[in-house]
Amino acid sequence: MDGRIGTVTRPTLEEVRRAPKVVLHDHLDGGLRPATIVELAREIGHQLPADDAESLGRWFAEAADSGSLERYLETFDHTVAVMQTHDALVRVAREFVEDLVADGVVYAEVRYAPEQHVESGLTLDEVVAAVQEGFDAAVAAAGGRIVVRQLLTAMRHAARSMEIAELAISWRDRGVAGFDIAGAEAGYPPTRHLDAFEYLQRENSHFTIHAGEAFGLPSIWQAIQWCGADRLGHGVRIIDDITVADDGQVTLGRLAAYVRDQRIPLEMCPSSNIQTGAAESMATHPIGLLTQLRFRVTVNTDNRLMSSTSMTDEMVALVEAFDYGWEDLRWFTINAMKSAFLPFDERLAIIDEVIKPAYEELISGS
Ligand SMILES: O=c1[nH]cnc2c1ncn2[C@H]1C[C@H](O)[C@@H](CO)O1
Ligand SMILES: [Zn+2]
Fold first, then answer.
1. What residues sit in the active site (predicted)?
2. Which homologous superfamily does the CATH classification assign to the domain defined by 4-365?
């Protein structure tokens, strides 16, 4: 494919890979290299559903393609199992960032739940330190081509969110930019963790909440209006508060209007949504309408291993589904950088010095 459709030039896979990209929603335990899982599992005697890297990669993609968030989440048992020691965490974190660099990502917020990595005796603090060590090594090796921050996730079915929020604050100047809750959404509303969110607000910290993925508007409403989320993880179901009449007239309900008016960032993860049943297909994914309505849409991978994807692949899939061009990809990228949990001057520097000049060149050359 040479990228030309009629007279319009479509961004090609290789061009998109070279373009600077920003990811705000990418799980550390959802982005291991299959070959690394095989090696680490062998070291600790963990039984995997496949023995070689290629079949294991395929197994993850197929098992995660289940149409249900709960079943999708079961696949993490195998990644979390091999991430229980200092050395394993350092390695996984280092390789994760190496893969982001190779994919052209210039800024990443990487999340995981420290409470899931203490089975072999590491403390929560040691878990965060090991991940940071891996990130630092890969960032140094990349020579400044990427900036990476951790987001600490608490599992919504568990009861350790306050502890994890305190951990995020204790690491706030050492690589941790914020907090999140994840896991099964139905039955576990965000308000269960209100004390943690209120604590973070009092600390002038930042957090995002997985909401509006496997459950609808009440989850989004609670995340924003009760818990004070800065961003929404997924947020796809905000579409339930938008009506499009036969004549194309669009009406926003009060919650959708609030999300758009307040420029609340939506961390959209199209491929993941198709696997968990939150969206039917790329072509019908709500990201199309939400982009058209100028919500603050960002594009993310969620779990590169389970969705067998990358930032480049997500962008290219959107280009193919919605005929997006460079201006659209730049808009997604700047939206994401504006929404990062990084100080304003640092966000601006990446937008002005890295993102804009690169897209300017891509746009003028297309
Ligand atoms: O998309 C998701 N929704 C809810 N939970 C998720 C999603 N992707 C990953 N997780 C869970 C499984 C991981 O073990 C955990 C921490 O990264 O977060
Ligand atoms: Zn997620």
1. 213 (proton donor)
2. Metal-dependent hydrolases (3.20.20.140)
